[in-house]
Amino acid sequence: MEIDKKLYTLKYSPDTESHLHPKTEDCRLCEGRPCTYICPAKVYEWNEEKQELIVNFENCMECGACRVACEKKSLGWEYPKGIKGVTFKNG
Description:
Helices cover 23% and strands 24% of the residues. It has helices at residues 3-8, 24-29, 35-38, 65-69; strands at residues 10-13, 20-22, 44-47, 52-55, 75-77, 85-88. Strands 1-6 form a two-stranded antiparallel sheet. A two-stranded antiparallel ribbon has the order 2-5. It has a two-stranded antiparallel sheet with strand order 3-4. The longest helix is centred in the first third of the chain and has 6 residues, at 3-8.
């Protein structure tokens, strides 16, 4: 099954606050920015003009790939509060 079809089988209940907390300065110094391509849900985007990482936390699948791939090991990550976050449904 293609990744886009798999992503469609997810249900999100996003929190109002991000559960992903990258260290801004480390992101500016990061050369590879692996989080921008390792995340299957495309949560991270690099804004070249502003020199900042944009975090679309609402799309997070909570897989943890970003934490593993982060070159600087500076991505603060926790599960969303309560019943927020991703829910897997039968596809």
